[in-house]
Design a protein that fits this description.
heterodimer; A: about 350 residues; alpha/beta; D-Maltodextrin-Binding Protein, domain 2; 2 domains; 5-stranded mixed beta sheet; 3-stranded antiparallel beta sheet; 15 helices; about 15% strand; globular; B: about 675 residues; mainly alpha; two-stranded antiparallel ribbon; 2 strands
Chain lengths: ~350, ~675
């Protein structure tokens, strides 16, 4: 009786041992293709950010898989995230990458969201955080915050209702208690700059680095006056705009501070790489480590800067998960955020 | 300033005295030519997305030479698809199909291609020259036009609908109203309201213009071949004319080339107008100003090819004016170009004008040189490619369907795009069948969003005071004058009597059905959108659906009371929008249904099995069963489709098609 048992046990040991040994000798990703589905059109800055990672990612994933990309724009990233969450096999061979809308759309309950942000698996992001500057055209003469806040009927430009810069503008207008501020949408970024110079707009918000790189004459020729800043994350100052008052200094209540905390978290999440729930833990670990090494590689930083004009601001997977887990989700704050992000008049404070 | 300009111009030429720069231009031109003749899924933005990470480590001038070479040429050579296959080319080459394809059908493909390349080459040179001359004056030029002025200009563009509606203005206006209506699908920028979205993520960003244009024009063209069984039952018209004839046509119409090139440059300069409008605006301008155009445009008038092609290529010069001199990208391609420049330490905009003027001039010379080389390449290939017009339908139809599916599905890789292409393909057939012109629909779709955007911006920024701006008054006067002049000219023309269109009785009843369908769509839109806030319903309800419904009712009334029949008997020649097949009713119906069965089946197959599996199978079985081709040729054709779909996209470019639903 004992012999068959011993024999079976030894066979099993041999089998699994050998199999384990052969498994550990052949990395899972060797000879395989890793597909990165991007929730955007090809060719934009977001695409360049992700493409800058690929050579390094390949280097750091054991087995050096082939990496290919697919594009699935639409719905501000909802289409891609839904697809990753529900439509792909959780085998670690398909990764998604979307923009900042991933977290915001889910928390705010936007239509079309078919995923749970608490069940997605996060791998990190090459970018997170920014500083957004509120500025007005110099011709108006609003060279102090007091004058700026006293001005009636300021025309603030933005792309569309719900766009990042639109929400920035609305937050500023609300917390600074601007009088009769008007939000004029339908501009692209460059069109807004032209409209400012033409006198069609009075003010706008913009990314700090983009202002300095794309429109240096705004600074050099003093064509605009810089009024205030949103720091993401809070406390992360831009060296050129360190003297500007931060938006939270205008908050009067804990509710307003919670709102800003939620807003900052939305933006801090960056452009997350995601995996579907159920992906085997060891493959998640492989990918997380590879992305972590990539994000720390000086070569990647150089490549990123070359292709985007910005420095990366990496967010590691564990930080990203913690950020999303701790995001404020009170109904009252969400409703307030909806009002600020929408097209209705600003709510009273 | 003048001395430094001249010095910079000379230095710009000296920068190019490097054999590698010339080689880079040649390679770039080769890549650009390839993207021009490839299906719509491979465009300059994708090429740039692949090239930019590679070239940023090169010396700046060599990198710029490759990139500019690739983009300068893709528009010049884009006329192949419209002329030979009846498929719109990329953005900016859609209107060419209106006259280019009829020319190809009557054997004048070489003449059409010759005219398009020559016009494109000249347009490119004019755009380049304008770029060079604009360096001192670009900024004030761009700042001259604000939202109010742009609104009037776009409105003026819409008035060209009056010229594109043929002899049946009501039908054209119904089509234009429908175009305006569907342009409003999606989330409105100004209010955030979801219009006609029905909780579908797919519709959040609106209906895809490129897919609709492809379907409206490409599908009926393929159907025509399948109906007539070109090459089997009906012999193709022998090739007549030559490339040189097209060249002569273009040189003779030099004034048209110049005017349309300036339209193109202007569209390129003004941020926000977009590449998709340039060919329609210039085509409309040509239809408005060319002698006899109302009788010949849309039926194979070479001027209908020259106008959009010269504008489309001149636009690149305008794009570069805004990109280089102001640092504003005009689209994905120029945005990527800016990325490349920044990576090389060059900051486009006033900074670049101050510090790297010689590089700007190098770009000018590269642009001009690329245009010349691209034109010559086009001429070199045209004679052989023109013979595609003689290929029998059993081979051409599956090729065209392959291109249509690739073009449609590559936009967003969304299965819903397949549904859109089938629906609008059928729609395009019905429009052509029952005399509803398609260009006004496209024009409404293209310009509707712009119109709404500029109107909103004008009112939001200025209240009503924008109506009194000098630029608005001047432009309004010009627009109204040209419209009145055009309509007055048409009303004075005698209509020849006794010219009857060949009609099949089935078409008559179908027209009532189709008009009723339009009416129901407009009424549905009215019902859905009536309670929206004014800012959201102004365009779709008051400008599109309400007038559209009234026009449809009026047209139905004309039919039901027999007025339409009487007016048809005394009307002059119609536009090309009427199908001219001479088959008996039963055969036409049977072949049409068969074609759509293959087409819809192909779309279903792509959705279920994926592009890589389904398209080669579709090609194989269509050629074999429907086309009665031999096994060998069907297999070879299928293999070519596989190489295109998998080999080019998946293997070479590393861009994967989504797996089909059954294989996910």
């Amino acid at each position: 009786m004992k012999r068959p048992a011993i024999f079976l046990a030894l066979s099993a040991l041999l089998l699994f041992g050998l199999d384990g040994a052969s498994y550990s000798q052949t990395p899972f990703y060797q000879g395989k293709t890793l597909t990165v589905i991007q929730g955007r059109e090809p060719g934009g800055t977001g695409d360049m950010r992700i493409r800058s990672l690929f050579p390094f990612l390949k280097k750091y994933i054991p087995g050096q898989p082939n990496i290919v990309t697919e594009y699935m724009p639409g719905g501000g990233g909802r289409k891609t995230t839904n697809h990753i969450y529900r439509g792909v096999k959780p085998d670690g061979l398909t990764i998604g990458n979307v923009g900042v809308g991933l977290v915001a759309n889910a928390v705010l309950g936007e239509p079309g969201v078919q995923y749970d942000i608490d069940k997605l698996i996060y791998l990190g992001s090459p970018n997170s955080g920014n500083q957004y500057i509120l500025f007005s055209v110099a011709k108006l003469g609003l060279d102090s915050l007091e004058k700026f806040r006293a001005y009636r009927g300021l025309r603030i430009g933005a792309q569309t209702v719900g766009h990042d810069l639109y929400i920035n503008g609305r937050l500023f207008a609300w917390l600074l208690e601007l009088k009769e501020a008007r939000f004029v949408t339908g501009f692209s970024g460059p069109e807004m700059d032209i409209a400012l110079m033409q006198g069609e707009l009075d003010a706008r918000t913009g990314d700090a680095d983009t202002i300095l790189v794309r429109t240096p004459e705004f600074v050099e020729k003093r064509l605009v006056h810089f009024q205030a800043v949103i720091e993401i994350p809070k406390g992360e100052k831009h060296p050129r705009f360190a003297n500007l008052p931060e938006i939270e200094s205008f908050a009067k209540s804990e509710k307003e501070r919670r709102l800003l905390a939620m807003f900052r978290t939305f933006r801090s999440a960056g452009s997350p790489f995601i995996l579907p729930p159920g992906t085997p833990k060891e493959r998640v670990q492989i990918l997380r480590e590879a992305i972590q090494k990539t994000l720390k590689d000086p070569g990647f930083h150089k490549e990123y800067r070359k292709l985007t004009g910005d420095d990366p601001a990496p967010l590691m997977a564990e930080q990203q998960e913690k950020l999303i887990r701790e995001i404020p989700r009170e109904r009252e704050i969400i409703e307030l955020f909806h009002k600020l992000a929408g097209g209705e008049p600003l709510p009273p404070r | 300033m003048e001395a430094s300009l001249v010095q910079a111009a000379i230095q710009g030429i000296q920068n190019l005295l490097d054999p590698y720069v010339f080689l880079a231009i040649i390679v770039g031109v080769g890549i650009g030519t390839f993207t021009a003749v490839a299906p719509q899924g491979i465009g300059t933005p994708l090429v740039y997305a692949i090239l930019v990470p590679i070239v940023v480590s090169w010396t700046p001038i060599r990198a710029i030479a490759l990139l500019i070479g690739a983009s300068a040429v893709s528009a010049i050579c884009a006329a192949y698809l419209p002329v030979l296959f009846g498929i719109p080319g990329g953005a900016g080459s859609q209107a060419t199909v209106l006259d280019g394809y009829p020319m190809g059908q009557r054997g004048e493909a070489r003449r059409a291609l010759g005219a398009s390349f020559m016009a494109g080459g000249l347009g490119s040179l004019i755009g380049t020259l304008t770029l060079a001359l604009a360096i001192p004056v670009a900024k004030p030029l761009i700042y001259l036009l604000g939202s109010p002025e742009l609104f009037i200009v776009v409105l003026w563009g819409l008035t060209t609908v009056a010229l594109l509606v043929g002899d049946r203005p009501i039908k054209g206006l119904i089509a234009a109203a429908f175009g305006l209506l569907i342009s409003s699908v999606g989330q409105q920028h100004q209010s955030g309201l979801m219009r006609f979205v029905f909780d579908q993520i797919y519709l959040l960003d609106g209906l895809p213009l490129s897919v609709i244009a492809l379907a409206l024009f490409g599908v009926p063209s393929a159907l025509d071949l399948a109906l007539t069984r070109l090459g089997v039952e009906k012999q193709p018209t022998a090739l007549t004319g030559s490339l040189l004839d097209g060249v002569k046509d273009t040189l003779r119409e030099w004034w048209l080339v110049l005017r349309c090139s300036f339209v193109g440059v202007w569209v390129g300069i003004v941020p926000g107008i977009g590449a998709q409008t340039v060919d329609w605006l210039s085509y409309g301008h040509a239809a408005q100003t060319c002698k006899g155009a109302k009788d010949t445009f849309g039926k194979g008038d070479v001027r209908g090819v020259i106008a959009p092609e010269s504008a489309n290529d001149a636009k690149d010069g305008g794009d570069l004016i805004t990109t280089l001199l102001l640092g504003f990208p005009q689209g994905t391609t120029t945005a990527l170009f800016i990325v490349a420049l920044l990576a090389m330490g060059l900051i486009p905009g006033p900074e670049m004008v101050r510090k790297n003027l010689d590089v700007i001039f190098s770009i000018v010379w590269i642009q001009g040189l690329s245009g010349i080389i691209g034109t010559l390449v086009g001429f070199a290939l045209a004679n052989q490619l023109a013979k595609l017009a003689l290929v029998r339908y059993s081979i051409m139809v599956p090729i065209i369907l392959t291109f249509i599916f690739i073009g449609a599905f590559s936009a967003d890789r969304d299965p819903a795009d397949l549904l859109v292409v089938v629906v609008f393909g059928a729609f395009g057939y019905c429009m052509r069948r029952w005399g509803f012109p398609r260009p006004p629909l496209i024009l409404g779709l293209v310009l509707g969003e712009l119109l709404e955007r500029y109107l909103y911006r004008s009112v939001a920024s200025y209240g009503l005071s924008w109506l009194g701006r000098p630029g608005v008054i001047v432009l309004s006067f010009l627009a109204i004058s040209s419209l009145i002049y055009t309509l007055w000219g048409r009303s004075r023309e005698k209509r020849p009597a006794g010219i009857k269109q060949r009609r099949i009785s089935f078409k008559f009843k179908g027209e009532i059905f189709f008009t009723t369908f339009f009416l129901l769509l407009f009424l549905a839109a009215l019902f859905i959108g009536w309670d929206w806030p004014l800012i959201a319903k102004l365009m779709p309800i008051y400008v599109a659906a309400l007038p559209g419904a009234l026009l449809a009712l009026s047209h139905l009334y004309s039919h039901l009371t027999g007025q339409e029949e009487r007016s048809r008997d005394i009307a002059g020649p119609a536009t090309d929008e009427i199908s001219t097949t001479t088959l008996d009713r039963g055969t036409e119906l049977r072949r049409t249904l068969t074609f759509f069965a293959w087409f819809a089946g192909g779309a279903l197959g792509v959705w279920m099995l994926g592009m890589v599996i389904c398209l080669p199978l579709l090609v194989f079985f269509y050629s074999l069963i429907e086309g009665k081709e031999k096994w060998r040729s069907s297999f070879l054709l299928s293999g070519a489709a596989y190489l295109l779909v998998w080999g080019l996209f998946d293997y070479l470019l590393g861009i994967r098609w989504p797996a089909g639903l059954l294989l996910e």
